[in-house]
Every structure is written in structure tokens, then in C-alpha cells.
């Protein structure tokens, strides 16, 4: 048990990047634990590589059905929000960006095999020989899958580094949004800002992205006014490597709003309102 627990957070981080769902990632880690319990430990040289292989292949089994489910999803799909600290040490900007909602949405473009190779290579720095061992493929095939994945993903999102300066920008955004300060919102939003909402058809949410500063200002002002009318209060958190706000009405979490900042401006807003995706924070 102790050896498995030493790898639990890393395995959750791998499964979450593969699936974009915290609940499914936890299920995969639990399935891996059951397989670990049923194995003769003498046959396992090193727990880390063995668990990575088990978790990756469990995720591959789920990805085909997950894609079909997302094709039927009502409105815009966003990954489950997860507290940054739950996803393990993030020592580089690339590792931090690899858990961003923006990046996980891009990974939806990939086939299951491409996604597995890309995540192992880009987020966990696996060599092609290691990836080949995990997926039971040749090194040449893994290189080809990685090249295809990079082309499909395209340019990866880049955000301002975390810290007091970025925190000050997102606090200015919240103050302006909560106070109905349209001029203040205009100052903090980038000209090409985009706002996405995920209600999953279960709560009211914009079903298409809202684009451009003028539209986003009006949209945010309207949404925050509605939240204010029902007593929703916001508290800062770090979610998916970004600054975010947890909106609660009483004891109930009603939204997680991730604020993406680049070049000292808010470039993206991702609001998760689907109650099924908020249980990880309850």
C-alpha cells in the first residue's frame, strides 16, 4: 500500500491529462490499485513504470467511449477543474501549461494513441523507448505518433507566470466584474479575449464561445449581476495551473471560473457550471 501511495498523485496526474475528467481519473487510479493488489510484487521490477503502463492502458480503454460522449455533449465541453496542488509537482512552465484547461481542450483533437504518446512525452518527459514499452509499440511508431500529435495540437498556449503580479491582474478583473465597472473590465481584458462556459445542458450557460472585448464585457457584466442577485460569493483558488475563483451560493459550489492571463491582460475565461464537474471541489 505504501509503495502504491507514493505514486498515487503522479498516476492521477497522468490519468487526468489523458481523460480530462477528475472523476474518471480517480476511477482509473482505483482500478490500477486493485490490479496492484492482485499482482505478485516479485514480478514487478519498479512500481513506477508498471503503474504508468497500467494507468495509460486503462485510460486508452476509456477514451473511445469518452469521445462518443463528448460528441453528444450539450454546449461547449471543458475539462473538470482540479486544484493545481492535486496534480503533483510542476517544476517547469511546460509542465504547468500541460494541466491548463486550454491545453487539455487542444488534446481533444488527438486520437487515443496520439494523446498517450503526447502526454507521456510532453508532460512527463518520457523517452521514446520508455513510451514504446508502455504502449507496446515500436520506437519508430511512437516518434511518428508524437510528430502527428504535435502537428494536430499546433501552437501551445502560453500564459504569464504565477505570482503576485498575475494575481493582481485577476483581482482587478474580479473587482471590476463584481462591481459592474465596465470601463475597468475593458482595461483588464485583451482585445481578442474569449469566454467559454460549460453547463452541460444542466444549468444555464452560453453554448458557444463569446469572443472580443466588447462582447465579453457585456457578457461578464450580465453573468456577474445574476450571480450577485442570488448571493454568490467568489474566493480565489489555483486551478489547473491558473488563477481562478470559486463561486459559492451558501455552501453550494456553483461555478469555477479560470482566468487566463498573458502579456498582463486577461485573454481567456473558462467557467465550469456543470454540477457533475464540480464535485471534486465540494
Task: Kindly describe this structure.
The chain has 282 residues and is α+β, with helices and mostly antiparallel strands. It folds into 2 domains: 2-153, Up-down Bundle (Butyryl-CoA Dehydrogenase, subunit A, domain 3), CATH 1.20.140; 164-281, Nuclear Transport Factor 2, Chain: A, CATH 3.10.450.50. Helix content is 51%, strand content 16%. It has 11 helices and 6 strands. A 6-stranded mixed sheet has the order 2-1-6-5-4-3. A hairpin with a 2-residue loop joins β5 and β6. α1 packs antiparallel against α2 (22-38), α1 (2-19) runs parallel beside α3 (47-71) and α2 packs antiparallel against α3 (47-71). The protein is elongated, with a radius of gyration of 20 Å. The chain starts with a helix and ends in a 10-residue tail after the last strand. Belongs to the sigma-70 factor family. ECF subfamily. Keywords: Sigma factor, Transcription, Transcription regulation. Interacts transiently with the RNA polymerase catalytic core formed by RpoA, RpoB, RpoC and RpoZ (2 alpha, 1 beta, 1 beta' and 1 omega subunit) to form the RNA polymerase holoenzyme that can initiate transcription. GO terms for molecular function: DNA binding; sigma factor activity. Residues 170-245 form the SnoaL-like domain.
Brief summary of the model shown:
The protein contains eleven helices and six strands.
User: What do the pLDDT scores average to?
Assistant: 92
Q: What CATH architecture of the largest domain do you see?
A: Up-down Bundle
The oligomeric state of the chains shown is: single chain
Q: Rg, please? A: 20 Å
**Strands of the largest sheet, in order across it?**
2-1-6-5-4-3
InterPro entries: ECF_Sigma-70_Domain, NTF2-like_dom_sf, RNA_pol_sigma-70_dom, RNA_pol_sigma-70_ECF, RNA_pol_sigma70_r2, RNA_pol_sigma70_r4_t2, RNA_pol_sigma_r2, RNA_pol_sigma_r3/r4-like
Protein name: RNA polymerase subunit sigma-24
GO molecular function, one term: sigma factor activity
Family: Belongs to the sigma-70 factor family. ECF subfamily.
Amino acid at each position: 500500500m505504501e509503495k502504491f501511495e507514493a505514486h498515487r498523485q503522479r498516476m492521477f496526474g497522468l490519468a487526468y491529462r489523458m481523460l480530462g475528467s477528475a472523476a474518471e481519473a480517480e476511477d482509473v487510479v482505483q482500478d490500477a490499485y486493485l490490479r496492484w493488489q492482485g499482482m505478485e510484487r516479485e514480478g514487478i521490477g519498479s512500481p513506477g513504470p508498471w503503474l504508468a503502463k497500467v494507468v495509460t492502458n486503462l485510460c486508452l480503454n476509456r477514451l473511445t467511449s469518452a469521445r462518443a460522449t463528448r460528441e453528444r455533449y450539450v454546449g461547449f465541453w471543458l475539462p473538470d477543474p482540479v486544484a493545481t496542488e492535486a496534480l503533483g509537482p510542476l517544476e517547469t512552465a511546460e509542465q504547468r501549461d500541460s494541466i491548463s484547461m486550454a491545453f487539455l481542450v487542444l488534446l481533444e483533437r488527438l486520437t487515443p494513441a496520439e494523446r498517450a504518446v503526447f502526454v507521456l512525452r510532453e508532460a512527463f518527459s518520457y523517452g521514446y523507448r520508455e513510451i514504446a514499452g508502455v504502449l507496446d509499440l515500436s520506437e519508430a511508431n511512437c516518434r511518428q505518433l508524437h510528430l502527428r500529435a504535435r502537428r494536430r495540437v499546433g501552437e501551445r498556449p502560453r500564459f504569464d507566470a504565477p505570482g503576485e503580479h498575475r494575481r493582481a491582474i485577476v483581482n482587478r478583473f474580479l473587482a471590476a466584474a463584481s462591481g459592474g465597472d465596465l470601463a475597468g473590465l475593458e482595461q483588464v481584458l485583451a482585445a481578442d479575449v474569449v469566454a467559454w462556459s460549460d453547463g452541460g445542458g444542466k444549468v444555464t450557460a452560453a453554448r458557444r464561445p463569446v469572443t472580443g472585448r466588447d462582447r465579453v464585457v457585456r457578457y461578464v457584466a450580465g453573468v456577474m449581476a445574476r450571480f450577485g442577485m442570488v448571493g454568490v460569493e467568489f474566493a480565489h483558488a489555483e486551478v489547473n495551473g491558473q488563477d481562478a475563483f470559486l463561486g459559492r451560493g451558501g455552501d453550494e459550489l456553483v461555478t469555477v471560473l479560470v482566468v487566463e492571463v498573458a502579456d498582463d491582460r486577461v485573454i481567456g475565461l473558462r467557467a465550469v457550471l456543470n454540477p457533475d464537474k464540480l464535485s471534486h471541489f465540494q
